[in-house]
């Protein structure tokens, strides 16, 4: 298990692990694999449809993207990294995550204005990626699109990520480090919030601000928070505006539940009932600045 150390400022992924000389070399290399935005917009629809032309393959091939150099040593799932490359598009992956954090923050700003401090990646147990690959293969046998979405999860994070994360084998380890290192555990459902609107499952939000409402301040730093950025394979969604607290699995023949905005919810959420449907990809640490 390893964690990318906190940089002095948000920077490129390869600079977090590489020497300055290596970083310069890879920065130079990145120009040959970057895409002008107008070109990428033309390719985006085709890549999502599985186009195999050279340009489209290059756009979503994590092995030729310098911003994925470190991630190739962290995540063993090619399916996951391809989804991440499509998500990143023409942006560096960590910059895209930060941008997505801000653009998906939808709650009123009277609660504070978030400012991202850093993005962390922890090496998960290999079985987390293996089981995700197997589940994706299972979905692709019955669906054309496994419906993978980038979603947020709020949880308790106590450690500082400066030198090393919590020891997941310790009884004092925080929930965030346990999830990042060992994946989600369905038995922990409801441990932070006993109300389960859609039953015993793992809950995610498309809005970073909703995930923030389930996060707790880190240690003695009352204005510092961390939420998890995840890739979730939703498969076929059962969409509802009604509470379904009795669920232990999604209604047949669906693979997940989508809670839509309505008389019960002000902000939508997604629920899965299998831990192999998700990979915790990154932890975003941010400071809440008051007005």
Automatic annotation (TrEMBL):
Parts forming coiled coils: none
InterPro entries per UniProt: Poly(ADP-ribose)pol_cat_dom (IPR012317)
Region feature Disordered, mapped onto this chain: 15-41
Organism (species): Glomus cerebriforme
Gene3D superfamilies: 3.90.228.10
Location of the PARP catalytic domain: 178-282
UniProt-recorded Gene Ontology molecular function terms: NAD+ poly-ADP-ribosyltransferase activity
Protein name: PARP catalytic domain-containing protein
């Amino acid at each position: 298990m390893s964690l990318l150390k906190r940089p002095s400022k948000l920077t490129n992924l390869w600079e977090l692990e590489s020497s300055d000389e290596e970083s310069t070399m890879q920065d130079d290399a990145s120009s040959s694999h970057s895409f002008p935005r107008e070109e990428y917009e033309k390719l985006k629809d085709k890549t999502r449809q599985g186009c195999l032309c050279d340009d489209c393959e290059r756009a979503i091939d994590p092995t030729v993207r310098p911003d994925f150099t470190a991630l190739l040593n962290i995540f063993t799932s090619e399916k996951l990294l391809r989804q991440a490359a499509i998500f990143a598009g023409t942006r560096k992956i960590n910059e895209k995550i930060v941008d997505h954090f801000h653009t998906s923050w939808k709650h009123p700003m009277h609660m504070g204005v978030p400012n991202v401090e850093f993005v962390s990646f922890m090496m998960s147990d290999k079985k987390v990626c293996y089981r995700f690959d197997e589940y994706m293969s299972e979905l692709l046998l019955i669906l054309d699109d496994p419906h993978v979405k980038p979603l947020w999860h709020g949880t308790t994070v106590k450690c500082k990520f400066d030198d090393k994360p919590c020891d997941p084998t310790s009884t004092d380890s925080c929930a965030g480090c346990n999830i990042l290192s060992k994946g989600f555990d369905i038995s922990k459902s409801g441990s932070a919030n006993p109300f389960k609107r859609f039953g015993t499952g793992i809950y995610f939000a498309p809005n970073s601000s909703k995930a923030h409402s389930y996060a707790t301040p880190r240690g003695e730093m009352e204005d510092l928070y961390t939420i998890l950025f995840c890739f979730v394979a939703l498969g076929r969604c059962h969409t509802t505006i009604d509470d379904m607290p009795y669920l232990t699995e999604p209604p047949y023949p669906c693979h997940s539940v989508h809670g839509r905005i309505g008389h019960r919810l002000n902000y939508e959420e997604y629920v899965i009932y299998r831990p192999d449907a998700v990979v915790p990809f990154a932890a975003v640490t941010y400071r809440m600045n008051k007005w």
